[in-house]
């Protein structure tokens, strides 16, 4: 094993700081031994800072209608080969109540960018969930106005997930017609200002993305001091302009996850459904490389197959009860436990005893 690799991993595990050049080096282990060391150290940092608990967040994908045209995404407005749906409010509330009965303490409300959901409509759903259930709410509904974000927050939303997708501004512009990286950053700043626990995140293996870009992604999230970092592989979807591109690999995704854990010890890191799609034990592997969150799908099953951001997504036919049991077994199988608290920001907990 290269001495330099060993000492940089040790430095990252102890001080949680690396320069961009150092991070680029650590992101590229030379062999199996170096890779194992990186994963082992990330797992140790996760254990020291987050413990054995895995936080479950139940996701309700309540609308697959999207007015954007992101080049990689199956929900993009120009994809006419998708059945579009909006789940009626009553059904969303039932799904949330069902998840609560199964022990979920966080409900994630996720959709495409669908302006039919005015602030009033979304606030009504948020309020009803918060009034009826003792859960935290994460919103993931894309770019909105400052005023909308304020109303959602006042209605009771606790967290907001707005992935930055890539910190390479030129690549961001190519992938997101009509959108700008600057606007994305402003929104992340607004969300922080409004007191949300904020999640950003990036894709791994995008066409044209370099290792240096991935290092920038991690350093960007560290600088933004995010509470959660959603890092997952790019998986090409046949009905998009990037359908023929090659996707991100499990190995590279795990390396990025491990480095993210080394540099951001208190961040919540999900083992994404997308890594579970790349490999039957992808989520377990991610949980052993620094991840501490799993986000099972609790969308009513008849809608699930149509929330097709990427193809062959796992768990589209599982009922929430089965899914909950399956996840529990997977977590126990690697010696970990399911958390029983809300899973709020670890940074808030440590810094402000939240
Ligand atoms: S990534 Fe989000 S905003 Fe972009 S097309 Fe897909 S659902 Fe819409």
Automatic annotation (TrEMBL):
Cofactor detail note: Binds 1 [4Fe-4S] cluster. The cluster is coordinated with 3 cysteines and an exchangeable S-adenosyl-L-methionine.
GO MF annotations in UniProt: 4 iron, 4 sulfur cluster binding; metal ion binding; oxidoreductase activity; transferase activity
Family annotation (Gene3D superfamilies): Aldolase class I
Pfam families, alphabetized: Radical_SAM
GO biological process: sulfur compound biosynthetic process; water-soluble vitamin biosynthetic process
PROSITE patterns associated with the record: RADICAL_SAM
This protein's record includes keyword Lipoprotein: no
Domain Radical SAM core intervals: 52-272
Keywords in alphabetical order: 4Fe-4S, Iron, Iron-sulfur, Metal-binding, Oxidoreductase, S-adenosyl-L-methionine
EC number from the UniProt entry: 1.8.-.-
Record: residues binding S-adenosyl-L-methionine: 165, 184
NCBIfam families: rSAM_HydE (TIGR03956)
This protein's name: [FeFe] hydrogenase maturase subunit HydE
Annotated organism of origin: Koleobacter methoxysyntrophicus
Higher taxonomy: Bacteria, Bacillati, Bacillota, Clostridia, Koleobacterales
